[in-house]
Amino acid sequence: MEGADTLGGVSRHRRRRRILLSLLAALVVLLALGAGGVWYGVNHYAGQVQRIPNALPTVPASQRPVKPAAEAGAVTFLLIGTDSESTVPTTGNAAKAPLWVYGAQQSDTIMLLHLTADRKNAYVISIPRDTWVPIPGHGSAKIDAAFSWGGPPLLIQTVEQLTNVRIDHFGAIDWSGFKALTDAVGGVTITIPSNSYDSEQNIHWTAGTYTMNGTTALAYVRQRYGLPNGDLDRIARQQNFLRALMSKTSGEFSLTNPFGVNRVLDAVTKAVSVDDQLSNGDLRDLALSLVGLKAGNVTFASAPLGQFITVDGQDALTLDPSRTPQLWQAISHDSLPSWIHQYGGDTVLPAAVQ
User: Fold this and answer.
1) Could you say which DSSP state residue 25 is in?
2) Which residues does 192 contact at the CB level (< 8 Å), separation at least 6?
3) d(Cα 332, Cα 335) in Å, to the nearest integer?
């Protein structure tokens, strides 16, 4: 297999874990639907997107952030993947099984996708799953525990409490969908800068440039063992792969290549799940509003990290108190360009490590 010596050590349990890359779930799906330009096609594919019942919090409005007037028209998604398989049998698509089982699943990675009011730009902000935060009703813990304890609603509440950003919608994508999408675009080219060994997956990675198929790509974005900064390097890999995948996918969205459009649309919409407040019409309208959004106008960043800590024997992370509040405020007021200009995108490592 290109880029890796072997995948034989990947257990069945690990192979079925859901990987985030939910940028695809919310962004690429919407771009694809808009690019189709045919009302029947849009409605058809939107109907394939699974809906997650009761994903949004039902707490009183007074307990959720207020959306500032400056953000009117902007849309913020909370995007996740889970690291445990569902116990409910499916027919080739794990996203159709219940997304959450109490205490059984955690969010593998967490991202905020912010679409600006004018739909000319999109921002993907990663929140490392080991970030130590208060979780409503549960004290403080790593942020991914919120999903394990209370599913999408509690995770949304936790993120809203952390950021004071109103979450409009929720989305997830599963491992099989990610693989199918990568294969649907004919593989994605990725450069690996140095050799590494992933002891968890028993894979030797060799430095070089490779066209990765779905299976290899999944192993690539899952790696954290054998990388100098563990989960933080995995975030960087996921963002790197998303850039490449969006660039490759955009080539499939052409009215002169209807088979490519249909193949990608079918792969993505069968894998993605979104909250049940997003109707087919809502997806269609949002998709059509994003027709002009280009891959080059998607900016990746990570919540600025403060330091590594240990709490009750658990390794965790804190967020940088000098830079993070301004990030959340920039999202709330739809003014991320100024924050990116000041601090830069793609900030993953804590200041002490950079």
Assistant:
1) I
2) 3, 205, 206, 207, 208, 209, 210, 220
3) 8
* CA atoms of 30 and 42, how far apart (whole Å): 10
Q: What's the CA gap between 4 and 69, in Å, rounded? A: 50
For residue 140 the two structure tokens come to 């403080």
Q: Residue 23 has which token pair?
A: 């940028």
Identify how many contiguous H helices and E strands the chain contains and give both numbers.
Answer: 12, 15
Give the CATH fold of the 23-173+256-343 domain.
Nucleotidyltransferase; domain 5 (3.30.420)
Instruction: Pull the structure tokens for residue 136.
Output: 């409503």
Q: Where are the domains of the chain?
A: 23-173+256-343
Per-residue pLDDT of the chain in tens (354 residues, 90 and over written 9): 445 543 333 333 332 223 233 333 334 444 444 444 444 456 677 778 888 899 999 999 899 999 887 778 999 999 886 544 433 333 334 444 456 666 555 566 788 999 999 988 888 898 998 999 999 999 999 999 999 899 999 999 999 999 999 999 998 876 666 778 888 888 999 999 999 999 999 999 999 999 999 999 989 988 888 988 887 788 888 778 877 877 776 655 554 565 566 777 777 777 678 899 998 888 878 877 877 777 678 888 889 989 999 999 999 999 999 999 999 999 988 888 888 888 876 544 433 333
Task: Give the HSE-up count for residue 70: Cα atoms under 13 Å, Cβ half-sphere.
Answer: 9
| 236 DSSP 8-state letter | H
Q: How far apart are CA 328 and CA 349, in angstroms?
A: 18
Phi, psi of 319 (to 5 degrees): -95, 150
